[in-house]
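Lab meeting, item 3. Inverse folding demo.
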């Protein structure tokens, strides 16, 4: 593990990073779009805007980043750096067709390493899992970098090769420098998710604590600790740092289970309002969350189906297939849901949460033998039945 850099005593690493970004933006802001526009300063400015929005996990802030990128492209033309940034932003917001369009604006990007990595990401999200793995392995053979290794590890983990996935994550960590502590922490969080998906809570928490030591104060570490411990305290801390409606929903579920219905309903309304506001603006980022919310919180199966269908039209993969199957089951249409669940299961993904939902859907459709089969497989993968939240 690399040694963390020295952060100011009164600031966490996360806060110190935000402070540095704010200082950069203040210095660059006045000149970023001043005439005559200097492409280097303009590009650096929008990259720092993107860094801040990504670090905050703030969807509303990323909207402003999008406007700044579009303005930069209008001023200096479709430079590769700007098109790549726009493609990464669209991918982060689940806009896959737009991501492909952005890359096409600078045709040379398809031959560049960063462009090829993003095309592999697109392949995975579009359900072409083996194609994505082959592309990433070819990139790793040419130049071993931590981010490509971590992507391969993610695919191996999804396909049930947990030990190989963890080895690849360790290898990725070895490629990370002492200046990239947030990246190191992120990889530790992925290792934690891998353990949590197998019911290994103590091992997951060890990774999360390592992530906190490497890069202190990061809300994502706090959120995943909340997932592992089912801890309202951790979720409350996250919400004090960032506005994440999905965290508000998780916290609401905990309070509802604890009988604190008034507080739970406040959090549910907060989450739903943000989800719907985003969707009404034409954004697709929260379609999956809306599916889950109406299926599991509001128990409105038909509304869940509506959002799941919107999501699968954009990215047809095991996640969206399983989500639509679950929505149909919650709408009392388990027999219809089976077709989508079987497609998700045929993907080769090995995941206890997926198997558990398959069990309930097959039970709902009266197919008891299949329900027993997938229930048994879920229990073997994760005896504790703890879900790892991945997004």
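The presenter then showed the designed sequence:
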């Amino acid at each position: 593990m690399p040694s963390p850099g020295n952060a100011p005593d009164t600031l966490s690493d996360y806060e110190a990073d935000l402070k540095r970004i704010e200082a950069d933006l203040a210095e660059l802001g006045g000149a970023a779009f001043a005439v005559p526009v200097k492409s280097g300063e303009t590009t650096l400015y929008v990259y720092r805007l993107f860094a801040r929005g990504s670090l905050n996990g703030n969807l509303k802030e990323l909207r402003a980043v999008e406007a700044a990128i579009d303005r930069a492209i209008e001023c200096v033309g479709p430079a590769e750096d700007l098109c790549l940034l726009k493609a990464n932003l669209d991918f982060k917001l689940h806009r896959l067709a737009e991501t492909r369009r952005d890359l096409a604006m600078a045709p040379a990007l398809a031959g560049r390493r960063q462009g090829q990595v993003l095309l592999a990401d697109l392949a995975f999200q579009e359900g072409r899992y083996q194609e994505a793995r082959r592309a990433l392995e070819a990139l790793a053979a040419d130049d071993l970098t931590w981010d490509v290794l971590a992507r391969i590890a993610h695919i191996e983990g999804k396909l049930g090769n947990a030990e190989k996935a963890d080895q690849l994550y360790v290898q990725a960590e070895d490629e990370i420098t002492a200046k990239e502590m947030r990246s190191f922490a992120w990889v530790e969080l992925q290792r934690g998710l891998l353990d949590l998906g197998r019911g290994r809570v103590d091992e997951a928490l060890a990774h999360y604590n390592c992530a906190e030591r490497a890069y202190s104060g990061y809300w994502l570490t706090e959120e995943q600790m909340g997932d592992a411990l089912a801890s309202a305290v951790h979720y409350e801390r996250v919400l004090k740092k960032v506005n994440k409606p999905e965290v508000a929903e998780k916290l609401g579920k905990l309070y509802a289970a604890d009988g604190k219905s008034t507080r739970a309903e406040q959090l549910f309304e907060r989450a739903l309002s943000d989800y719907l506001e985003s969707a009404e603006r034409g954004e697709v980022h929260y379609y999956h969350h809306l599916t889950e919310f109406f299926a599991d919180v509001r128990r409105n199966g038909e509304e869940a189906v509506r959002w799941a269908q919107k999501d699968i039209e954009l990215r047809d993969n095991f996640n969206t297939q399983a989500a639509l199957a679950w929505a149909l089951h919650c709408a009392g249409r388990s027999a219809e849901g089976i077709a989508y669940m079987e497609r998700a299961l045929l993907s080769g993904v090995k995941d206890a949460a997926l198997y558990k939902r398959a069990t309930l859907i097959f039970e709902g459709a009266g197919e008891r033998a299949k329900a027993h089969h997938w229930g048994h497989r879920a229990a073997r993968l994760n005896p504790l039945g703890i879900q790892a939240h991945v997004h």
